[in-house]
Design brief:
By secondary structure, this protein is mainly alpha-helical. It is built from 5 helices and 2 strands, in the order H-H-H-H-E-H-E. 76% of the residues lie in helices and 4% in strands.
Length: 214
């Protein structure tokens, strides 16, 4: 209906108004009607104008549809973004206690590990100190035992009038067992009178270069 109305309006606008163009002297003459060629040309122009108008209208409607689609897409994207932000905020609120618990757990674990390391260090220090005490007590006990045994050997040598070199041979292992360093020669007071009386008169060197005196 709109197309027919537009076509009629265009036809009326394009038809030459012969009556308006007639002079007053020819008012009684017959009106000249347009020829078939002129009518066809008018219809062609009308069709062209209608096609152009329809195409422009379709383009305008397409642009409107595209603009509406873009607006819908933009609104949907904005809605998704708002929903995602709301979800993130809700998740952050929900997981905040768990994150706090995790932080407390990490702090507790670090403190516990530090305490364990301190305990291990104290245990190692105490163990080393105890081992040193045990070694010192063992060395002291060994030295005391060697001293008592040496005193016993000297007493036996005095009682039995044992030769000096025999007694020194028995004392040498005791001296070596109680010394942490093996010297090249062991200086010891040796004399028969010293063994008998316990006094030192002549020092002698016992070792690789020692030469027994007659």
């Amino acid at each position: 209906m709109r197309k027919a109305t537009t076509l009629g309006l265009l036809a009326a606008a394009l038809i030459p108004l012969s009556l308006d163009q007639q002079s007053p002297s020819h008012a009684g003459d017959a009106v000249a009607l347009p020829t078939l060629a002129e009518t066809s040309e008018i219809h062609a122009k009308i069709q062209t104008i209608l096609f152009t108008m329809e195409r422009n209208g379709e383009i305008a409607r397409s642009m409107q549809r595209a603009a509406k689609a873009r607006e819908r897409d933009r609104a949907a994207l904005l809605t998704r973004e708002l929903a995602a932000r709301a979800y993130d905020r809700r998740r952050a609120t929900e997981t905040a206690p768990y994150r706090l618990d995790d932080s407390h757990m990490m702090a507790f674990t670090a403190e516990r590990n530090t305490e364990i390391r301190r305990s291990l260090a104290a245990y190692r220090t105490a163990r080393e100190t105890r081992l040193q005490e045990i070694a010192s007590n063992k060395a002291r006990d060994g030295l005391a035992a060697a001293t008592r045994e040496a005193e016993t050997l000297i007493s036996q040598a005095r009682a039995t009038d044992e030769p000096m070199w025999t007694t020194l041979g028995r004392l040498a292992p005791l001296i070596a067992s109680t010394s942490t360093i093996e010297p090249p020669a062991i200086q010891i007071a040796t004399a028969k009178s010293a063994i008998e009386t316990g006094s030192i008169e002549q020092p002698a060197i016992i070792g690789p270069c020692a030469t027994p005196s007659p």
